[in-house]
Every structure is written in structure tokens, then in C-alpha cells.
Design a protein that fits this description.
Elements (H helix, E strand, L loop, with lengths): L9 H20 L13 H21 L9 H4 L4 H24 L3 H26 L6 H21 L5 H25 L5 H17 L7 H13 L48 H10 L1
Helix pairs in contact: 1-2, 1-8, 2-8, 4-5, 4-9, 5-6, 6-7, 7-8, 8-9
Length: 291
């Protein structure tokens, strides 16, 4: 059973669950809104949709639990053509959303959000080239989109507050939150502070909710681009071995100390010749004879 709970199945399992959720989402919308803009209740479809949603989020948590070693940036994001294409699609979706906000002229917050969107799209083009060549981008290039998504949530809430049914904007709202936190994890990986389990949860949850946000006609290009970006830029789903700490080089052996030279023992008192003044007369005569 344990071999089936491998995180390598997440990139396949979550898109399948997202497509199933998308079908159920279309079922909840029925034949479309009535004259008052309201959708008919679909209790069975909603019950099944929430069951699939809970199981999908639980699968992400359960299957990514084995990824304890976060690894460095290059361990998680090797060179990838698919990652570069997905990042370029995200740049396109963000550029369209940013220009739409700039042309709406709905206040300074909307204008600021649109400018951040345009700047983020340009930065993501640079990220796409870095992703293709396997180079680590600057964290600022991911921090700008993260700030854009945060301001966009506030901006979109002004329009969502006028919708009487929460089910209409619930999934776009959840998708926006997940994408923002997923891009925040990208910025953390740029400075080697990312966490794989956290990144996978927000990225795969963002894929799921972005696909569920496609029906309804609210910026489908934007959510499709975000789903493609997150799905093609998942961090590594294989367990990484912890790096062994580098062993310090052994210190050079000290040269053996030279043996101290033998010191001749000092002459004893008996061997030291006495001074002539200290000798008796007989001893003095003998000493003179010897000399």
C-alpha cells in the first residue's frame, strides 16, 4: 500500500481530479442563470463537488508527507522547456488581466494593480528564460506577481460583493488565494527557503481551483494560464537525500620535536678542585708537586 502513496503520482492525480471537479462544476451551473442572474440549486452536484474537493486536498497532503527534505533551488527546479512555456503562458494571462485593469479606470487601486500586472508579466518572461536554462531567477521577479495577486484579490472583491450567490465567485476567490501563496513559495525557493510540501499544496490546489474557475466567463485565459504555470513548475516530487556535512580536512601532523640534547651532569662537589687557599699545608705541598 505504501508504494501507491508516492508523491510522484500527484502531477497525474490532481489534473484528473480537476477535470472531474470541472465536470461537476458545470453540473452545478445547470442551464445557466435566470433573468435575475441566479442559478438553480443543484444539491447533488454540489455534494459530489465538495466530496471531490476534500478528497483532492487530502490526497495532496497525504502524498506529499514524505517530502521532508526541502533541498536547494537546483534540486527542485532543473532546466525545463515545459516550465518555461508554462511561465510564458502565465505572463500572457497576467498581461491581459493587467491591461484590462488599466483600461477600466476604476480608481487608483485598480490602476496600481494593472501596473503591477504589466511589470509582473515582463518579469515572468525573464523567469521563463531562466527556467529553460536552469538558472535561478531573482526573488523580485516572483515577488512582483505575488504582490499583484494580493492586490487583485482586493480589487476583484469589489465586483464579487455585488453577486448575490457566493457559489458564483467562490472558486475564483480560492484560486486567487492559492496562486498568490504558490508564487510566494516560488520566491522563497529563489532564496533557498522554500518548503516542498507547502509549495506542492498551494500549487496543486491552485491548479484544481483554477480549472474549476474556467466556467462562468470570468477571465478564462487568466485562470488557464495560472493552471498551466503551476502545473508545469511543480517542485521536485522525489525524495531527496540530505547532504552530508563536508568533513574538515585533517590537520597536518606536527613535526616530531627534537630530543633535547643530553646535558652533562654538573660536576659533584668532590670532583671540583678546591681553591689553594682552602687547602692545608700538606695538601698544598702535594698540589704543588702535582702542578
Amino acid at each position: 500500500m505504501k508504494k501507491y502513496l508516492h508523491p510522484k503520482y500527484l502531477p497525474i492525480l490532481i489534473p484528473i481530479a480537476s477535470l472531474l471537479g470541472l465536470v461537476l462544476r458545470l453540473w452545478t451551473m445547470g442551464s445557466g442563470p435566470d433573468q435575475e442572474g441566479l442559478y438553480e440549486p443543484q444539491p447533488l452536484a454540489w455534494a459530489l463537488l465538495w466530496i471531490v474537493t476534500v478528497l483532492t486536498l487530502a490526497a495532496i497532503v497525504l502524498l506529499s508527507a514524505r517530502l521532508k527534505n526541502p533541498g536547494k533551488y537546483f534540486d527542485n527546479f532543473p532546466p525545463s522547456l515545459a516550465g518555461a512555456v508554462g511561465t510564458a503562458l502565465a505572463a500572457l494571462g497576467i498581461m491581459v488581466a493587467g491591461l484590462s485593469l488599466l483600461t477600466s479606470s476604476s480608481g487608483w487601486l485598480t490602476t496600481l494593480t494593472g501596473l503591477l500586472g504589466a511589470a509582473s508579466a515582463v518579469g515572468l518572461i525573464v523567469v521563463a528564460f531562466a527556467r529553460y536554462h536552469g538558472k535561478k531567477p531573482s526573488f523580485i521577479l516572483h515577488a512582483l506577481p505575488c504582490l499583484f495577486f494580493a492586490l487583485r484579490v482586493f480589487e476583484r472583491c469589489k465586483a464579487w460583493s455585488n453577486i448575490p450567490q457566493i457559489s458564483v465567485f467562490l472558486f475564483p476567490f480560492l484560486a486567487s488565494i492559492c496562486v498568490m501563496l504558490a508564487v510566494y513559495q516560488f520566491a522563497c525557493f529563489d532564496v533557498n527557503l522554500g518548503r516542498r510540501r507547502t509549495s506542492l499544496f498551494w500549487s496543486l490546489s491552485g491548479v484544481y481551483f483554477c480549472l474549476l474557475s474556467l466556467p462562468g466567463g470570468e477571465e478564462p485565459l487568466f485562470y488557464a494560464g495560472m493552471a498551466a504555470w503551476l502545473l508545469t513548475n511543480l517542485c521536485s516530487v522525489r525524495p531527496l537525500k540530505a547532504r552530508k556535512p563536508q568533513q574538515a580536512e585533517p590537520a597536518p601532523e606536527a613535526a616530531p620535536e627534537a630530543a633535547p640534547e643530553a646535558v652533562e651532569p654538573a660536576a659533584t662537589a668532590d670532583e671540583v678542585p678546591a681553591s689553594p687557599q682552602d687547602l692545608s699545608l700538606d695538601e698544598l705541598m702535594d698540589w704543588l708537586d702535582k702542578e
